[in-house]
Amino acid sequence: MLSSYPIGRILGSEIRVHGLFVMLLVGLVGGSLLRDDTPTALWQGLSYVLLFSMIVLHEFGHALAARLFGIRTPTITLHIMGGIASLERRPQGSLAEFVVAFAGPLVNLVIAAALFMAGAWQENRAEALTLAGFMETLLLINVGLFIFNLLPAFPMDGGRIFKAMVQVVLPERFALLMSVVLGQLFGLCFIVYGVLRLDFMFGVVGIFLFAMAAAEGGRHPLWMFGRAFPAEGRA
Questions:
Q1: Where are the beta strands (DSSP E) in the chain?
Q2: Which of 66, 118, 132, 232 pairs with 112 at a CA distance of 20 to 30 A?
Q3: What pLDDT, in 10s, does the model give residues 115-127?
């Protein structure tokens, strides 16, 4: 099994990189080197580094918001599906849960707005290997992260926001159940789309959403079919 490895510490949180993420980055850049010229391949590599740098900032949005409620974030881990800010405990109450969940996408929105006002968006797509191309790529990355993370599907930030809003009017256990079901439905939609379009990445994202949505609710991924985790070994 591959592990995650520490690469530094920022604002009290240890930054870790999972081995699968390193393999993905090497594979993507290596594949680009085989297909394209060296400058294009290096630009592709830089684009991936930019993407995950923005994910780190996104996760620090969660971490800093959690501090407002007295919650520390011991580690932030980059893995193949993005990033995870490991809070020492879950936010208590709808307001805390909403603020901590929305803080991550808000970071991407603020960065995108700043780049847009700086003129990063152009009518005709800029050449990649220029400052304008760099800024435009950074703008698109942040817009994409903002939209994707607001999908109302556990374990995405949008799913947590949905749960926080629902539990204002319904008991928390029902809000959690609704979030799990919605997250798994989104996962199934991604899987079906990936199969129909022969898109491997959509399928992988769908499987991740389907499994993690259930895990967030402490359930077996196939809980709707009567499956349950063994009693022993579960926290």
A1: 4-10, 13-18, 75-79, 82-86
A2: 66
A3: 888 775 565 555 5
